[in-house]
Amino acid sequence: MMDLVGDLLKTLDQMVNDQFESIEFKNFLGVPLTLERGRFYVVQNALYTSNRRDCWGYVQGAAPLPVKRVIWEHESDELVNDPRAGMDHYTLTVKQGEVIGLKPEDFEKAEVPAMVRACFYAWHHVALRSHWLTAYTASHMLERRNNGKIVKGGGMSYRVGKKFENELGISLKRMISLDVHVVADTEHSENISEIFERYIKTPEDRDLALQGARDSMAIDRAYRGALGYYMAQIN
Amino acid sequence: MGATANGIEVLWQELVRMCNEQFQSAPFQRLLGIKFTKERAQHYSIQMAYYVQNRRDGWGYVQGSAPLDIKQLIWHHEEDELIGQKAQGKVDHMTLAIKEGEVFGLTAQAFERTPRLEGGEVCFSAWVRLAQRPWLEAIAGSAILEMRNSSELIQGGSLSRRIAAMLERDLGIPMKKQINNAEHVVMDIEHAHLLMQVARKYATTEPARQAILRGARESLMIDRVYRGHLADMMTALPDRD
């Protein structure tokens, strides 16, 4: 019998690696960082974190009970307290902002730029309106794409953290949110196999998961492309 | 008292009034007028486990759409329901429901192989749809069911307390052996205040208070329909074991 889950995981790994070859990712990661651009990125990343909390909530609503429990545990780090950081991930992002001169008010009054807003709504749509396996995989893929054990050359948080280090002279350790996510998303994305082993039994189940992966990676490319565009406008 | 504080107090009183009125409705009266047999208790217990599952769906969706600080409140709320307070040796409420079934002679398999009541399924869909509406309506739709189950707010006792009393009267099963009912009698008193916490911060305008009332009203309507279906289900079963 075909190894449905094994093959699926290989495909997902290929997809998250391919993200970094996309024009949108290359443009985003190619924009030279200035302090102002760095500030823009950190504030936008906090909004992205909020959007993740929305989507995981929706997925929790739709998923079977055992999966709801897994998501609840996952959200413990994100929403309530990550023991690695001693705080939730939103607070962590706001605290990280201090290193580059941001205040909590900068996060509170931040506006979501048009192209970013469209991406957030798109992620909401997938999380709310899809089969739970599609919705679950869509949210999971963003953590898989951040897993340095899977993505050759490092996940997104690692690469952005390195840009702060190389281009602004701020070490990755001081970018506490990026630093925590390098580890947290590796752990979060490694907990996934158990769910796939349990719930993916047919090619149709696999296709539902793949649909979520494709949708989410497309939105992610659009999102990173948008961030790169807006950052390039900041002189 | 400021206009907002006064508005929230009026809102709260109206919500409590609506919850109490629920018990005067025909479906609630029919449900609460039934004599339990062992078989009826078994079916009721299984369907209530599905109700608990549907609540988890609803609260998940509400968590998705609520602001970050309310998401955190809901996450803590769901700890009791979904995970249990491990430090206190308390299990999650689904496990509790299945464990309570043992006193009615049910096995875990009985929960797995008994389908959802047709009318229940429709109500569950309606509650999920409500949970996906704008967040103030959605949270009111979920939280009002816990207010309706708070003996602190309901004259004559909450739904869980009244059902527990009926099971004790008809089947001689004391409340302390009805571990799920007993837990909810206590827990929903605490959980019933969640909506007030939300209202104090977010129901600062009349449209916001109206949104809460809309969600609560709709949920109580679904609740009446659901209880009516439960009453019908039990009435269709023999009235003696």
Structure, described:
The complex is a heterodimer of chains A (235) and B (241). Chain A has helices spanning 4-19, 23-30, 35-62, 65-80, 89-98, 104-108, 114-129, 132-144, 156-168, 176-190, 192-199, 203-233. By secondary structure, chain A is an all-alpha fold. Chain A has a single domain, classed as Up-down Bundle (Heme Oxygenase, Chain A). Chain A starts with a helix and ends with a helix. Chain B is globular and about 60 Å long. Chain B has one domain (24-233): Heme Oxygenase, Chain A, CATH 1.20.910.10. The N and C termini of chain B lie far apart (58 Å). The longest helix of chain B is centred in the C-terminal third of the chain and has 30 residues, at 206-235. The A-B interface holds A 50, 53-63, 65, 68-69, 71-73, 75-76, 79-80, 88, 90, 127-128 and B 53, 56-66, 68, 71-72, 74-76, 78-79, 82-83, 92, 94, 128, 131-132.
Gist of the model:
The complex is a heterodimer of chains A (235) and B (241). By secondary structure, chain A is mainly α. Helices cover 76% and strands 0% of the residues of chain A.
